[in-house]
Structures are given as structure tokens and as C-alpha cells.
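The protein record now logged underneath.
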Amino acid sequence: RRIRRPVQGAAALLEQVRARARVAIVSNNLLEEQQDKLRHCGLHRFVDVLVVSEEAGVAKPDPRIFEIALGRLGCAAEHAVMLGDSWAADVIGAVAAGIRAVWFNPLGKTAPDLNARVPELRALEPPQAALAVIFDGPPVHQSTVVGDEQSGAANNEQEGSTSAAGPREHAHRH
């Protein structure tokens, strides 16, 4: 059985992001497994939209899975940020979808593309530092963000997923 726990600082960061933007998870995972992971880690309350490859019929890095998330959020790609831990799936996929990417790189790996202008976060704490990278880097709209599941729930294998978020002013609550 996998040990599931949130990445250190994830709940505090997601809570603060959620106050300014809608949040979505985009994952190459099964819907039930992803929902269980988010519930188990107590992060489900910060997520507005969950898009998984199982239901979308496409997987990261295909830009269509990001476009599905943006559509469900009512958010344009240029008003979004993708925070993801997988360069190949999250960063490449987000850029292909026209979304500004932020690489969550807690292990300090060398970026596969040194010419890419992709901001990097090594930790989610303190949340103010992560928020500055997420919201203050151009061309992000102040009320929009896209994040990664690693900003949330993780398995002991540290498998990655992605989150997307849309503008708070366009949020429709039920």
C-alpha cells in the first residue's frame, strides 16, 4: 500500500491560491484514485476542477488535456499558470497549450532545456515566496493560476499531476 501525504506546504499554499483563483488538478491518473488521494490528504476542498486522463481520453503532455481544464474553469490560457513537477508532462504540455509554466523542482535537477525561461520553485514554503512566483511572473492575470498535484497530494513515489485554475470573478459556485 502506498503512503499518501501532502507535499510539505501544499495545504497552506493551495488555501492562499484558492483565495485568489480557481484551482484544477490535471492528472495522468484514474479518476477514483485521484479523488481518493486528494480526500486522504485533505486537499480536495481546495480544488474546483479535476481532469484526469482516464476521462479526458488524452494524457499530459497533450495540450488538449490542459485545454479541457481551462474550458471547465472558464479561463483563457494566457491568464493561467501551470505549477508542475514533471518537465516532460507538465512544463512541455503547459507551454504547448499556451500556459505559463512554473517547474516544481524540489530535488534541484538541471532543467532539460536550459534555454527555456521557466521559473522554478524548489519548495512550497514559505507560501508567500511561492505565491510571488505563481502570481507575479508575467503574463499571469492576478486572479488566475494553474498548479500541480505535487502542490498537493503525493505518493511515496512522488508521482506527478497537474492543476489548472481560472479567474475567481468567473467562478460559478453550486
User: Anything to note?
Assistant: The helical segments are 10-20, 31-40, 53-56, 63-73, 87-96, 127-136. The radius of gyration is 14 Å.
